[in-house]
Amino acid sequence: MNGYVLATLAAIAWSSLGIWGSLAFNFGIDPLLLVTLRALIATIALLTIFALTKGELPKLDKKGIIFFSLFGFFGVGLNYLTYFYAIKLTSVSIAVILLYTYPAIVTLTASSLFKEKITLIKLTALLLTATGIIFVVGVFRYSLEFKTAGIILGLIAGITAAAHSLLTKFALRKYSSLTIVTYGFVFGGIFLTLTLLGINHTSIASIPTFPIKLWGIIVALAFIPTIMGYFLYTSALNYIEVSRASIVTTLEPVAAILLAYFVLSETLTPVQIAGAGLVTVGVLLVRIRRKKVSFRGEG
Questions:
Q1: 285's torsion region: left (phi>0), alpha (psi -120 to 50) or beta?
Q2: Alpha-carbon distance 237 to 168, whole Å?
Q3: Of 1, 26, 23, 49, whose CA–CA distance to 223 is shortest?
Q4: Cα-based distances in Å from 160 to 32, 119, 247, 262
Q5: Each residue of 222-263: pLDDT tens digit?
């Protein structure tokens, strides 16, 4: 399947995160407990899927254990935690803006790590998508008097999201998409569990009281934006440059407001519609390639 299609589907899957999260928070669940359960359920499901389709997971050598420990820590665990606390200390809109600094970080870093060219088309696409996201989330409607810690955590969320993309592209040289996603959540789930036990272990006592509907929401959260989203994105990196894939995923905020419009009956403003248009143009633009480099087999 076309790498751009896979990256787009990943963005759509990730866009449902806010809706599932909002529905879960209506039940009063602790956010850290929620993201930990999300990772653990995803881990169990991925291990089961791997066992049924591939057999045993490939054994990791010492370098593999170190690599996936770093991958799980930075790309999954730390990313989840910093993004959550950025939202808590600032706002969802500001956190989204800070998170989506990662396509720029990926584009600049990939030029050194993977020899991906920084072209005028990519830079223009980054500018269009970044501006569009600002319009979509309506950042200018909020006061900018936020705690410095929240801004720093949001930037770390963007850096760790970039780390996830870059480490995934690197891992694809040796491992399959399913192996990378599975091991990523195994080690990320361990980190989140240890963090939960250290910071808020008392919240675990609330688990037996969860109603069936809340469990359904948590499972959906683990499968749709988590397993599906990450697997689709990892698969996309088999076909296209990581810089291009990261720019395509800026469709996530656009898809999120559309889902909120159709599912939660939220309103869409003309500014948001204009922002969605800018993001879409930026994503379409990044698909343009000059003929002289087309032999490289990018998606």
A1: alpha
A2: 8
A3: 49
A4: 18, 24, 16, 31
A5: 999 999 999 999 999 999 999 999 999 999 888 888 888 887
- Report pLDDT digits (tens) over 143-158: 555 678 888 898 999 9
* 288 vs 90: CA distance, rounded Å: 36
Burial label for 112, CB within 10 Å (0-12, 13-18, 19+), is: exposed
8 Å CB contact between 200 and 76: no
Close Cβ partners of 236 (under 8 Å, ≥ 6 residues apart): 3, 4, 6, 7, 10, 245, 248, 299
Residue type, 215: W
Do 54 and 297 contact (CB within 8 A), yes or no? Answer: no
Domain ranges of the chain: 3-289
CB-based contact 20:221 (threshold 8 Å): yes
- Single out the residue of 194, 153, 195, 164 nearest to residue 70, CA to CA: 164
Tokens coding 254 = 């656009």
For residue 114, give Cα distances in angstroms to 21, 47, 81, 169, 189: 35, 30, 28, 9, 29
